[in-house]
Amino acid sequence: AMPERYQAMVDLGAGCGLRQGEILGIAVDAVDFDSDTLHVVQQLKLSQSKPVFAPPKGGKLRDVPLPGPVADALRAHMKRFPPVEITLPWKTADGPKVTRSLIFAAPGGNHVWRPNLNEESWKPALVAAGVIPAPESKRDGYAAAREHGMHALRHFYASALLDGGENIKAVSEYLGHSNAALTLRIYAHLMPSSQERTRTAIATVYDRAQEPG
Question: Which domains does the chain carry?
Answer without folding.
Answer: 4-144 (1.10.443.10)
